[in-house]
Amino acid sequence: MDHAMRRATGDRGSESVQAAIVAPLLIAFLCLAIAAGRLAVSGAKTDAAAEDAARTASLERTQLDAESAAADAATRSLENQGVRCASTNVDVDASGLAVPIGQVGYVTVTVRCTVDLSDLLLPGAPGSKTLTSTFTSVVDAFRARQG
């Protein structure tokens, strides 16, 4: 009985030490899971914004109008989906609008959205991540356009 009593008092405080070791690891894992989820959701929404922007640009008649419409569509799409980009960049290749009528042209839009991760306070993780998505839309071969 004396041996059991000594053993019980010898382990005193070990749970506190274990909690002090395990708790930060669990918190870091939770932050990592949140960051991965945020990036996955934002990536899918950036894909949708690129698709919206390319489709909108392919409906325009001039390259300048296509660039403006694509930027507006991408920004609006990201806002409507609740994505908060620290910075947004929209690149448009509207050279397909210069293709002669009767030939198929393409408009390609690339959307870059920088997602802020600094609020997660995850040691060693970058403060932000830039997500890039590209989508190509067909220009109607028989639609009037201005090169």
Question: What do you see in this structure?
Answer:
- Strands 1-2-3 form a three-stranded antiparallel β-sheet.
- Helix content is 49%, strand content 22%.
- By secondary structure, it is an alpha+beta fold.
- The chain has one domain.
- It has helices spanning 2-10, 14-58, 63-80, and strands at residues 85-93, 105-116, 128-139.
- Helix 2 (14-58) runs antiparallel to helix 3 (63-80).
Give the SSE layout:
Blueprint: H1 2-10, H2 14-58, H3 63-80, E1 85-93, E2 105-116, E3 128-139
Antiparallel strand pairs: 1-2, 2-3
Helix pairs in contact: 2-3
Structural class: alpha+beta
Count of separate structural domains: 1
Please report the total strand number as a whole number. Answer: 3
Extract low-pLDDT stretches: none
User: How much is the radius of gyration in Å?
Assistant: 26 Å
**Number of helical segments with 4 or more residues:** 3
| Outline type | rod-shaped
N-to-C span: 96 Å
Compact summary:
The chain has 147 residues and is an alpha+beta fold. It has three helices and three strands.
Describe this protein with a few key phrases:
3 strands; rod-shaped; 3 helices; 3-stranded antiparallel beta sheet
